[in-house]
Every structure is written in structure tokens, then in C-alpha cells.
């Protein structure tokens, strides 16, 4: 289990999960709303409604969740559960994220097997894909505000974002290599910028 305390300090003066049961039901609700992708729902629920995370904390935690193996939102649920209630909290959040979607997927798979070849069903699925893409785009626009305080600088952030989009969306490069090369370059630049902050602050 990853010690997420070093990633984001535990909040003490703002809303937090009341119990492991609260974690379970909260992530169950997130999972049941996440048709086509949970990112938009997670950002709205955890940052805007429940306020368990600030926007900056969400961006940082989501970045870590993306580079870890496994589904992003599952990684995020483990991190948040562990942060508040340790191992049991992580398991409660994970159970909430997986239990009800698993039951629904099994039921839908049995139903879908008989109607998968119908043109109406295929058209409906393509329409859902467009909506999911719109939700992810809208959430990405909301997260832009967190770039203002990024130590890399706004222009450099945009440059890395454009480079990542070109590598994956246009050139179809493998995600692992993009994370290794582009992500590694971004980390190296950030460490360089962080190293210059003390020096700048000591200048008259």
C-alpha cells in the first residue's frame, strides 16, 4: 500500500469522510454515476460537493493514479481510503468502487449478448462514447485552473500537454513510452524549477 501522506497532507479543518461506511457508499455512488468514465463525476463529487480534496490536491492525486498500474479511479479510491482510515479505509473505498458496477456489468453482459448485433444498440453505444468524450473534455477544462500554481510555469505545462496529445492522439505512440519520455522530462523540469525557488527567494 502506497503511503499517500507524503503526497498530500491529511486535511484537519475541512470536510472528510465520516467513517469507512461513508467511504463505501460515497465511492459506490461515484461508480454508479460513471458511465463512460468516472473522471468528471469524481472531480465534481470529491472537489466541488464533498470538498474532501482541493482542486490542486485532486490534480496531484489523479496524476499519481494515472502513472500507477490499474484503473485510475480505483487507484484514487485506494489512495483516499488509505489517507483517512489506513488499510481498512482503502479496502472500503475499493469495495464501494467495484461491488455494484460488477453486479451491473454481469447483468448487462447477459442482456447485451442477445442484442449486440442490433444497429440501434450499436448506434446508442457510439452516442454514449461521444458524451463520455465531452465529459472528459469539460473536466479537463476545469482542471486548467490548477496549472497557475504549477512550478513548471503555465507555458511549459501547455507545451507538455500539447506534446502528450500529439504523441498519443496523433502519432498513436504507446502510452508507456509517452509516460516514460514526456513524463520523465516533465518531472526533471519540475525538479529543476523547484531547486531554483530557494535561490530566487534569497535574492535582494
Provide a descriptive summary of the structure in words.
- By secondary structure, the chain is mostly helical.
- The chain folds into two domains: 9-146, no CATH class; 150-204, no CATH class.
- It has helices at residues 20-33, 39-49, 55-67, 72-112, 119-143, 154-170, 175-201.
- The protein is globular and about 60 Å long.
Tags for this entry?
204 residues, mainly alpha, 7 helices, disordered N terminus
Give the structure's gist in a few sentences.
The protein is mainly α. 73% of the residues lie in helices and 0% in strands. Helix 1 (20-33) crosses helix 4 (72-112) and helix 3 (55-67) packs across helix 4 (72-112).
Helical element count? 7
By secondary-structure content and strand pairing, the structural class works out as mainly alpha
**N-to-C SSE string, H for helix and E for strand:** HHHHHHH
Number of DSSP strand runs? 0
Q: Main sheet, how many strands, which sense, barrel?
A: none
Query: What count of domains describes the coordinates?
Result: 2
Task: Please report the distance between the alpha carbons of the first and last residues.
Answer: 45 Å
Bulk shape: globular
Amino acid at each position: 500500500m502506497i503511503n499517500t501522506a507524503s503526497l498530500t497532507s491529511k486535511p484537519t479543518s475541512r470536510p472528510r469522510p465520516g467513517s469507512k461506511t461513508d467511504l463505501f457508499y460515497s465511492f459506490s455512488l461515484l461508480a454508479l454515476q460513471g458511465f463512460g468514465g468516472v473522471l468528471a463525476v469524481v472531480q465534481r463529487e470529491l472537489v466541488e460537493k464533498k470538498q474532501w480534496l482541493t482542486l490542486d490536491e485532486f490534480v496531484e492525486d489523479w496524476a499519481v493514479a494515472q502513472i500507477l498500474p490499474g484503473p485510475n479511479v480505483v487507484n484514487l479510491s485506494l489512495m483516499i481510503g488509505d489517507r483517512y482510515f489506513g488499510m481498512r479505509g482503502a479496502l472500503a473505498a475499493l469495495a464501494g468502487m467495484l461491488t455494484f458496477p460488477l453486479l451491473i456489468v454481469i447483468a448487462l453482459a447477459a442482456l447485451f449478448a442477445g442484442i449486440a448485433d442490433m444497429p440501434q444498440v450499436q448506434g446508442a453505444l457510439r452516442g454514449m462514447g461521444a458524451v463520455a468524450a465531452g465529459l472528459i473534455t469539460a473536466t479537463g477544462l476545469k482542471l486548467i485552473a490548477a496549472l497557475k500554481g504549477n512550478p513548471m510555469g503555465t507555458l511549459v505545462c501547455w507545451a507538455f500537454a500539447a506534446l502528450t496529445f500529439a504523441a498519443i492522439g496523433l502519432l498513436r505512440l504507446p502510452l508507456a513510452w509517452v509516460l516514460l519520455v514526456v513524463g520523465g522530462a516533465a518531472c526533471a523540469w519540475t525538479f529543476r524549477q523547484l531547486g531554483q525557488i530557494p535561490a530566487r527567494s534569497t535574492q535582494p
